[in-house]
Amino acid sequence: MPQLTCIDPNDQAIDVTFEPGETVLQATYRAGVDGILAECGGGCSCATCHVVLNADWDGTLDAPSVQEADMLSFAIDPTPHSRLACQVQLIDKHDGLTLTVAKRQY
Amino acid sequence: MKIGIVGAGQAACTLIAELIRGQFDGEIIVFNGESHSPYQRPPLSKSWLADPTETESLRLLPEPIERHHSIQWIQSQVKAIEPDHGVIVTNNVSYTVDHIVLATGTRAKKLSIDGLSSEKTHVIRTLDDVMSLNSALDGVANIAILGAGFLAFELASSLKHPTRTIRVLAKGIRALPQISVKAADRLLDATPASIRVGVTVERYDEDNAALITNHGPIPADLVIMAIGAEPNIELAHACGLAANEGIPTDAYMQTPHPRVSAIGEVSLHEQPHLNQRIRIESISEANDTASTLAKRLLGQPEPFHATPWFWSDQGDLKLQIAGLSARTDEETVLINSETECVVIRHQGDRVTAIEAVNAAKEFMAARRLFEQGTISLENLLNAGSVFSLLQSSRS
């Protein structure tokens, strides 16, 4: 199965397997990666599943929707590579990539 | 310490997750009366109904937490509780615990309609409810939804299909009475359902597959009741607690019985945002009450102080509400553009809620402002947007 490497808020690297088609939230949440709260359960309504993708993700994703970008602007210390994990759908191409969970979700 | 949690919904699972993350060193026994592992309810009427995939996508607890060694899962209904002795009884087993948490939630209200069979009657509350609705949709041309709240219109959006006519039947004088007329209009303009208000159902005519109402016959191959929920308070009564509208607790989720706490939408406690004791149905209430109890059980008590928030997805429209208003609160439109709509609900100068349609920034700014204290209508109108008011409050 394809997998991601997730750096949690304690700087631990965790390998997370995923099924293409599921979201980063579904994969990381199932694996119990620390620091992802997802209060609304993946509805793009709470901005508590903030992750930062590293540069290798560039070109593999559509830009965030207006809704997601607006929610992200309220995350703690968003960066240009910030995304909400619930809005990022994984494909085979993402196998082997790395992301970092935000230090704080609120 | 051994804790028995009755229920396995959002509040129960948030409590479990926070206890495990907080290094709780006792044992947890969870009584799950449903036949599924804990799952998320909000998508049931939204994305999941529109596109049901495997139930794994609804998972509510991370695997390492669900399988944590300190948790024992009992897949059984609780039949009785003897709180003085900390005893919880299922069908054939008694469990003894030090503290009992009632997270029993609510159940969908059902209306009994003369002539309408149970096969044609649906409610949406549990995963089984949605699966049963899904399996009944084949060849259905006319769906009647009783009730005209968020659930009714979420269902209408999710069930939209070229071969189906969906009718929302409201008993009252308007649809979406929980929110302002202006915000409701934005959502109702986009709904695939046709709406009738002031409808009283008399009976169901099986031969013609129609609801007989004061507006005449209304075609209905199946009927979905989305007329609200009522709290599951029977076990609280069994504990000797006086529960009516909900299970009364203090600001630490403690009921009058020292061995019993209550969390989630069944709990009835002071809402600091409103200065009022009221039961609230929302995910924020489930999470925030669970979090308050977790802190207490972990030895770091802090009183409940959260501001409620809500959201509803209807097709491309997303309504987000920060705060909570009474139906009688005044409404003042703050922003009304092609794309966004933001309405202020207020009692005089005190803002009670911000209703945002496709305006996430305004919604999040409102949540932050409510966390800081009260919002003044005058200040908000002068600022022009919730976001500007938040920025000026920070500078």
**What oligomerization state is this entry in?**
heterodimer
Order of adjacent strands in the largest pleated sheet of chain B: 3-2-1-7-19
Mean pLDDT of chain B: 95
- Which CATH architecture of the largest domain in chain B is right? 3-Layer(bba) Sandwich
User: Residue share in helices of chain B?
Assistant: 10-25%
Can you tell me the residue ranges of chain A where pLDDT is under 50 for at least 5 consecutive residues? Answer: none
Q: Portion of residues in helices of chain A?
A: 10-25%
Structural classification of chain B: alpha/beta
CATH-scheme architecture of chain A: Roll
Which stretches of chain B of 5+ consecutive residues score pLDDT under 50? none
Q: Give the full name of the CATH homologous superfamily of the largest domain in chain B.
A: FAD/NAD(P)-binding domain
Please tell me what the overall shape of chain A is. globular
The biggest sheet of chain B, with number of strands, parallel, antiparallel or mixed sense and barrel status, is: 5 strands, parallel
Which percent range describes the beta-strand content of chain A? 15-25%
Instruction: Please give the domain count of chain B.
Output: 3
Largest interface, per-chain counts? A-B, 22 and 27 residues
Please tell me how large the radius of gyration of chain A is. 12 Å
Number of helices of chain B: 11
CATH fold-level label of the largest domain in chain B = FAD/NAD(P)-binding domain
What is the general shape of chain B?
globular
Characteristic terms for this protein:
heterodimer, A: 106 residues, Ubiquitin-like (UB roll), 2 helices, 20% strand, globular, B: 395 residues, alpha/beta, FAD/NAD(P)-binding domain, Enolase-like, domain 1, 5-stranded parallel sheet, 11 helices, 25% helix
Describe this structure in words.
The mean pLDDT of chain A is 93. Chain A contains two helices and five strands; from the N terminus they run E-E-H-E-H-E-E. Chain A has one domain (3-101): Roll (Ubiquitin-like (UB roll)), CATH 3.10.20. In chain A, a hairpin with a 5-residue loop joins strand 1 and strand 2. Chain A is an alpha+beta fold and 106 residues long. Chain A is globular, with a radius of gyration of 12 Å. Chain B is an alpha/beta fold and 395 residues long. Chain B folds into three domains: 2-41 and 59-105 and 230-297, FAD/NAD(P)-binding domain, CATH 3.50.50.60; 110-225, FAD/NAD(P)-binding domain, CATH 3.50.50; 316-394, Enolase-like, domain 1. In chain B, 25% of the residues lie in helices and 29% in strands. Chain B has helices at residues 10-21, 47-50, 63-66, 127-135, 150-159, 181-190, 234-238, 283-297, 360-372, 377-383, 386-394, and strands at residues 2-6, 27-31, 71-74, 80-82, 87-89, 94-96, 99-102, 106-108, 121-123, 142-146, 165-169, 194-196, 201-205, 210-213, 216-219, 222-225, 229-231, 247-248, 260-262, 267-271, 276-278, 309-314, 317-323, 330-336, 341-347, 350-357. Chain B has a five-stranded parallel β-sheet, with no helix packed on it. In chain B, strands 9-16-10-11-12 form a five-stranded parallel β-sheet, covered by helices on one side. The longest helix of chain B is centred in the last third of the chain and has 15 residues, at 283-297. The radius of gyration of chain B is 22 Å and the shape is globular. The model of chain B has no long low-confidence stretch (mean pLDDT 95). The A-B interface holds A 22, 26, 29-34, 39-45, 47, 66-67, 70-71, 73-74 and B 21, 40, 42-43, 46, 56-57, 59-60, 62-65, 283-284, 287, 311, 313, 318, 320, 358-361, 364-365, 368.
